[in-house]
Structure formats: C-alpha cells, structure tokens
C-alpha cells in the first residue's frame, strides 16, 4: 500500500474518529441530563463507576495488546495466522470475565445487600458477557483497520451506541423499578448488535468482492480460525509482541482508570458520591476535551515541525526560535485567560449549572463544591497542555525517556495522594490530587522552558500570568457573581 494512501487513510480515520468521539460525548451528555431525573445517586455510582470499570478493564485486558501487535506493519505477515491469533481474544476474554466477575461479586461489597438497589449480580454477569461478545468482532476489526475501512468503525460503533442510548432511555422510562437491569440489557443488546454488524458487513463484502486480490479474506470461512498446513497455528512473532504490549499497557490502564480503581477497591466513597463525582468529572472535562485538547495537539504539531528536536536554542534557526517564543507566549496567555474565565464564572454558577443539567440529584450535596474545585483543575489542565506540547516537541529522545520515568513517579504520587486525600476529605480529594499532579508537571515544564530560553532575549513564560487590568477585572467579576448568586 502506497505511503500517500496510508497517510490519506490515516488522516481520514483520525477525522472520523474525532467526529465519533464528539458525537458519543454529546450523546452521553444529553442522555445523562435526561436519565439523571429518573434514577438515584446510588444507581448512578454502581453503573457509571463499578460496572463500567468492570467492562472497560475486561475489554482492555482481553484485546488492547492484540490490537497494537496485529496492527503493526510486517512484510511476512500471514493473515490466516493473524486471524487465528486474534480469535484467541475470546477464550482470554472468558478467563478475564470469570476472574474479574468473581472479584466484583464476591470480593467487593455487594450492593444488593448494602443498598436499596437490586440487580447487581445480573449487572455483573451482563457487563462481563458483553465483553466476551464484543471480542468476537476483534479479528474483523483489525482487518478493517489494516485495510483502511475508515468509516466502518465509526458507523458500526455509532449505530450500536445509539441503540444502547435509546434502549436505556426507553427502559428507564417504562420500567424504572428494574434499576441496574435496564442498563445491563442495553449494554448486552449493544454488544450483540456491534458484533452482528461487523460479521454481516464482512460477509457481504467478501461475497461482493471475491476478485479483490489484495484483500486476505477470500471466503466467509476465512473470517474464522482454521488449521494451516505446515505452519504454526498462530504468528509466533506477533504473539510475542502481544505479550510485550500487554506488559507495557497494563500499567497504563491502572493509571488511566486510577480514580475508579481507588473508588472501587478501597471503598473511600459511597456509591452515591461515586456517581456524583463521575458526572462532575465528565461535565467538567468538556472544556478540556473540546477547547484545550485541540489547542494542545495543534501547538505540538507546530512546535515539532519548526524546531529541531534535541537541539538547544542557540543552534536553532533564529527566525524559527523567535516565532516559537512568540506563539508559545500567545498560546499561554490565551489558555490561561480562558481557564481563568472558566474558574471565575464556574465558581459562582456551579449550583445553577448542575440544577439545570441534572436537577436536585446533582445540585444538592457535594455536587456544586466538586464542580467549583474542578474549575480550578481546568485552569491547570489548560496551562499544562500547552507547556508540555512545547516540551515534548523540543526534548531529545534521551530527555523524553527520562521524563517518562518522572511521569511514572508523578502517577504513583497521584494514586497515593488520591487515596489519602479522599480518605480524609471525601470526593474533593480526587480533584485536589489531580491538581497536585498537574502542578508538578507544570513546574517541570516551566523549568525546562525557562532553561531552554535562558541565554536568549525571549521570555514566553511571561504570558502565563494575565496583565494587571485583566486580573483586576476577573477579581471584580468573581465578587459580583458570588454576591449575585
């Protein structure tokens, strides 16, 4: 496959995935706003934290390493062996479903006996089964990604998730007394639809395109595992690579879902508090995902293209260095100002925003306090994203390797501080732990940038702090909105 075609396909895939993520986020946002008025805080915590964590952990452990290994380029790849290897995800998923399902049912507290919510056991079974069902589409998913079926993943996942959302709303309205069962049925149906669509699409494609010499699946039988004469059943090199990726990504999963693991295994929050925290986290992170993340990605692309990685400032083109310093200063000023505005107006309007979004289930209790602290966290996210974009573009490979080790330390401190602060002050402790983690990373980035421009006439870090008139205006706005609340 030509490089230009790969680049074009990758660009299209990235665009479609961005649209899919945006659509899923907005759909979830609207869905939560609707069903929050019909369910309890305890049910929200059990479904959105504990059961969702079971599903994401099982799916990650069963398929993530296979995805990364089998999508790696290999000139001697035999697709029959790759398909056989990918079908190994099903028995592995069953093992993880059984192991984690047992922990969720018999090691962790069972909500059936500790709250008024019923159906937890059925929920664990359904969410586990949905994982085992979904990996049945794994071989076809990898083939589709490898041959740049760019719209396929977006369309099929969009359809299955749309059905899940619609069915959840319907069941919650029609049978509210079923509780967890409503979400479990929707999850199970969504997984069945997802797998059925994948197998149906490829069966149709194979029958329609039998003369496509480049496509490895010549018949419907090729979609499934089979014995290969005079060859190992699986690609041994990819199997070894899969194990390597598993060891590498296992820690990543723990750190990515660190807050939910702490909530689930250390019992630091009630189910009601877990549910409220999850909603606030999703609501508060909208600005980070839709405003600051695109700025971070675009600025990294700009800095990485204009700077020579690993070269000190005096060895860079002076025109490029001046432009970088100017752009970095402007970006820091922009994101810090946006973050400060979110903090000022979010602090005073937290109660109103939550009441409009989710009703009394969110606006009473700890919800407004959590959102106010999250607004401060958003400010840190804004500054950290832009500073790290420059740092990662300017660092040498050796410096990046050293920073990865520091990130491991930062992540360990984050998990420990999350457990400690949450045990002491409740769900606000998670947000404070995130803030401390961001502050540590910001300090590291500011030090690197300061040293990088030390012997130059440029001072891009001056843009981090707004000018005095802006600071004064923000303080006055904070006072006025706080009084008028």
Walk me through what this model shows.
By secondary structure, this protein is an all-alpha fold. 79% of the residues lie in helices and 0% in strands. It has 19 helices and no strands. The chain has helices at 3-35, 41-70, 79-87, 89-107, 111-114, 120-134, 138-146, 150-174, 180-208, 236-256, 258-266, 271-284, 286-306, 318-358, 360-363, 367-394, 397-425, 428-452, 468-484. Helix 2 runs antiparallel to helix 10, helix 2 crosses helix 12 (271-284) and helix 13 packs parallel to helix 16 (367-394).
Q: Overall pLDDT, averaged?
A: 82
- Per DSSP, what share of the residues sits in E-state strands of 2 or more residues? under 5%
The largest pleated sheet is described as: none
Order of helices and strands: HHHHHHHHHHHHHHHHHHH
Number of beta strands: 0
**From the alpha-carbon coordinates, what is the Rg to the nearest angstrom?**
25 Å
Shape: globular
Low-confidence stretches: none
First and last CA, distance:
61 Å
Number of helical elements? 19
Percent of residues in helices: over 70%
Please identify the structural class as seen in this structure.
Answer: mainly alpha
Subcellular location: Endoplasmic reticulum membrane
Pathway: Protein modification; protein glycosylation
Transmembrane segments: 22-39, 45-62, 82-105, 117-142, 154-174, 180-201, 323-347, 371-395, 407-425, 461-483
Keywords: Endoplasmic reticulum, Membrane, Transmembrane, Transmembrane helix
């Amino acid at each position: 496959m030509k490089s230009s075609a790969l680049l074009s396909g990758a660009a299209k895939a990235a665009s479609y995935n961005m649209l899919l993520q945006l659509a899923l986020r907005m759909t979830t946002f609207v869905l939560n706003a609707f069903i929050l008025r019909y369910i309890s805080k305890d049910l929200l915590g059990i479904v959105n934290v504990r059961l969702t964590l079971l599903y994401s952990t099982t799916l990650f452990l069963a398929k993530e390493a296979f995805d990364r290994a089998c999508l790696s380029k290999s000139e001697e790849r035999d697709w029959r062996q790759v398909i056989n290897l990918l079908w190994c995800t099903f028995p592995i998923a069953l093992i993880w479903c059984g192991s984690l399902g047992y922990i969720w049912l018999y090691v962790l507290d069972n909500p059936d006996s500790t709250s008024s919510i019923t159906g937890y056991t059925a929920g664990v079974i359904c969410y586990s089964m949905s994982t085992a069902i979904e990996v049945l589409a794994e071989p076809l998913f990898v083939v589709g990604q490898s041959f740049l079926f760019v719209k396929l993943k977006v369309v099929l996942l969009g359809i299955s998730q749309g059905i899940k959302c619609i069915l959840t709303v319907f069941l919650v309205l029609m049978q509210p007394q079923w509780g967890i069962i409503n979400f479990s049925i929707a999850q199970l149906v969504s997984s069945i639809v997802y797998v059925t669509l994948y197998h149906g699409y490829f069966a149709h494609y194979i029958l329609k395109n039998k003369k496509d010499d480049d496509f490895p699946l010549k018949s419907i039988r090729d979609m499934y595992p089979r014995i290969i004469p005079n060859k190992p059943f699986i690609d041994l090199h990819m199997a070894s690579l899969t194990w390597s990726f598993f060891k590498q990504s296992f820690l990543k999963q723990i750190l990515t879902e660190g807050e939910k693991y702490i909530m689930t295994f250390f019992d630091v929050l009630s189910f009601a508090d877990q549910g409220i925290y999850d909603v606030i986290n999703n609501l508060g992170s909208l600005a980070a995902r839709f405003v600051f993340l695109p700025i971070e990605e675009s600025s990294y692309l700009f800095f990485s293209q204009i700077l020579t990685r690993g070269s000190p400032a005096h060895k860079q083109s002076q025109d490029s260095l001046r432009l970088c310093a100017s752009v970095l200063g402007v970006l820091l000023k922009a994101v810090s100002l946006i973050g400060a505005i979110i903090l000022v107006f979010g602090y005073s309007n937290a109660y109103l925003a939550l009441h409009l979004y989710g009703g009394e289930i969110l606006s009473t209790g700890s919800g407004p306090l959590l959102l106010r602290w999250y607004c401060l966290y958003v400010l840190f996210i804004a500054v950290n994203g832009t500073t790290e974009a420059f740092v990662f573009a300017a660092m040498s490979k050796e410096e990046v390797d050293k920073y990865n080790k520091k990130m491991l330390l930062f992540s360990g401190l984050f998990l420990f501080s999350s457990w400690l602060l949450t045990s002491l002050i409740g769900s606000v402790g998670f947000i404070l732990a995130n803030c401390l983690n961001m502050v540590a990373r910001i300090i590291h980035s500011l030090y690197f940038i300061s040293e990088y421009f030390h012997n130059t006439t440029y001072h891009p870090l001056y843009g981090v702090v707004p000018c005095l008139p802006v600071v004064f205006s923000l303080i006055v706005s904070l006072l006025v909105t706080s009084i008028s609340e």
